[in-house]
């Protein structure tokens, strides 16, 4: 599949998991890709070396200067920017009834990456996306943004903010740039490798009887990039779990 020949994309947090699968998918479709992470430089370089037309750039999306540098690196390396996938995210595992543990410092740490980092990447990239013939932003949200669930209340709330940011930016940036989000349920990545109990519940209760693979999310991202008449949508990808819970 070569639909993205000549296109250039940034996938934040693509040294691992969902972001890696998205980088691989978009590269397979012909796009040039900048792989990114904030710490895992060796892994990030391995990913970029394993796919065609790709370079790695280390940048922490919670740092506004790093966001500018990541976008500038992309422009200097590939000559433009058509696709921004805001995938990088963090969480803290805190029971929802442990109110004291979810203190304001935890909220700030999570919002710094998931909300402010996503915003800053959009802000740094918009000028170039508007110059593209088909500029697209895809934000990776979570089922926790929609259902009262998730690894902690600050995390779930941060992803709800990402959904609303998605809709507001879609309204503001059309027709030049489309903005959509994918809200995954349980996906098998390093992040969730110890979540055996949750995986068992999903396998029993979700109509599709399994947890998701990073490639499942990557396929939706590719579909949204191709969907020229869709903007402002949050696509839930949970194997149907929320139908039964
Ligand atoms: N796995 C799931 O079940 C699931 C479900 C719903 C939503 N999600 C969302 O999907 C996204 C990816 O999750 P994943 O499961 O694939 O996690 P993962 O395997 O842990 O990968 C996270 C990636 O983000 C990078 N990253 C973290 N903080 C960053 C920062 N400040 N700046 C740049 N990169 C950063 C990590 O590299 P460094 O640590 O080296 O920076 C890594 O490349 C997240 O936004 C998450 O909220 C995941």
Structural summary, described in words:
By secondary structure, the chain is α/β, with parallel strands linked by helices. 44% of the residues lie in helices and 15% in strands. The chain contains seven helices and seven strands. A seven-stranded parallel beta sheet has the order 3-2-1-4-5-6-7, sandwiched between helices. Helix 5 (153-173) links the parallel strand 5 (135-140) and strand 6 (177-184). The longest helix is centred in the middle third of the chain and has 28 residues, at 104-131. NADP nicotinamide-adenine-dinucleotide phosphate (NAP) binds at residues 12-19, 36-40, 60-62, 87-90, 113, 117, 140, 142, 184, 186-187, 189-192. Residues 12-19, 36-40, 60-62, 87-90, 113, 117, 140, 142, 184, 186-187, 189-192 line the site of NADP nicotinamide-adenine-dinucleotide phosphate.
Keywords:
245 residues; Rossmann fold; alpha/beta; seven-stranded parallel sheet; 15% strand; binds NADP nicotinamide-adenine-dinucleotide phosphate; single chain
Please summarize what this structure is.
This protein is of the alpha/beta class and 245 residues long. The chain has helices at residues 17-28, 41-50, 64-78, 104-131, 153-173, 196-205, 214-226; strands at 8-11, 32-37, 54-58, 83-86, 135-140, 177-184, 234-237.
């Amino acid at each position: 599949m070569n639909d993205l020949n000549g296109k250039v994309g940034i996938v934040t947090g693509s040294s691992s998991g969902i972001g890696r699968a998205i980088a691989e998918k978009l590269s397979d479709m012909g796009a040039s890709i900048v792989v990114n992470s904030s710490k895992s430089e060796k892994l990030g370089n391995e990913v970029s070396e394993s796919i065609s037309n790709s370079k790695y750039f280390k940048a922490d999306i919670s740092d506004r200067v790093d966001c500018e540098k990541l976008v500038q690196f992309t422009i200097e390396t590939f000559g433009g920017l058509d696709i921004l996938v805001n995938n990088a995210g963090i969480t803290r595992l805190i029971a929802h009834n442990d109110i004291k543990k979810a203190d304001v410092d935890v909220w700030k740490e999570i919002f710094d990456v998931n909300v402010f980092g996503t915003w800053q990447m959009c802000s740094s990239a918009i000028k170039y996306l508007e110059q593209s013939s088909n500029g697209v932003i895809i934000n990776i949200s979570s089922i926790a943004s929609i259902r009262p669930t998730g690894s902690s209340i600050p995390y779930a709330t941060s992803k709800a903010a990402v959904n609303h940011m998605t809709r507001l930016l879609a309204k503001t940036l059309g027709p030049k740039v489309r903005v959509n989000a994918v809200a995954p349920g349980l996906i098998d990545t390093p992040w969730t490798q110890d979540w055996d109990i949750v995986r068992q519940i999903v396998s029993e209760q979700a109509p599709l009887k399994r947890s998701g693979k990073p490639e499942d999310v990557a396929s939706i991202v590719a579909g949204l990039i191709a969907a020229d008449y869709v903007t402002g949508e949050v696509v839930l990808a949970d194997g149907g779990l929320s139908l039964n819970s």
